[in-house]
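Changelog note: in this version the structure field was regenerated for every chain. One regenerated record is shown below for reference.
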Amino acid sequence: MSSFPFALYDAFTTTAFGGSQAAVITDAAAIDSAARQRIAREIGMPATAFVDDYGDDWIAAQFMSTVMELPMCGHGTLCLLTHMLELGFIDLDKNAPREITLRLPKLSATVTLNLRADGRCQVMLDIKPPAFEAPPPHTGNLLKVLGLNAEALASELPIETARGDFIHLVVPLAGLDTMRTIQPDFNGMVEFCHANGIETIAVFCRETENPHHCIHVRDFCPAVGVSESAAAGTTNAALSSYLVRHGLLTAESDIIALNAEQGIELGRPSSIRSVVTMSDRQIFRLQVGGVATRVLDGKIHL
């Protein structure tokens, strides 16, 4: 029997039992793909990160959901980097940010680490800005799987597909009251997503419970193994790009920062920070992140 250390974290929250969960398994190079999928299914978290190797400024890893490999995972990245820092595998100078290259099987990304004033590590992941296109033509089917009627939509904003590391259907709603009346049909969502090449349905409104937040988010992901995400980095990166695209975010400089709230309806409140750097009125750099909190650790026995 072989044993592998693991830890469970909550991402995008400073306290346990909030945000979105991910497990991190270190020394995972000897675990093959089939075993990784079984482990991720057994752990049952939205994401499990498997660390294959690391160096001074890079980490080689893979993310798995309960049903598939994830090409990228925002909340999993927060948990992974926080765990590597807590284990002492990464050094961090309190006076300067640290950049780490995250090497995944299908892509690589830059991750920036900063120590906040409260001593917590803020992890910011570079995300490729998504391309936007027209939504699927079947709006009636979309409203049906959300349990809403046409009046629930924000009439001044369009539904659009954001195509990046994941494919998100961005759905703007009128306000918080409407967000709370969503009655998701998860089986119907899976059928809708598969039929239209969509991976998550990202629903948001500009009315928020916390006045320091810019948008209120719900992200439905049954097509990739999670009924509803309590906190999703890649989704919020796409939503930030959508807001910039439609002129809903302004700043005095070329750097636009915003905080989003998510997971409230699930009893797992989270705060996701996005930073958009503009150049010639285009998105030059897109980052998303926050902090992660360790909940438990132990060993996986195979």
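Spot check on this record: The chain has six helices and 18 strands. Residues 259 and 273 are 4 Å apart (CA to CA).
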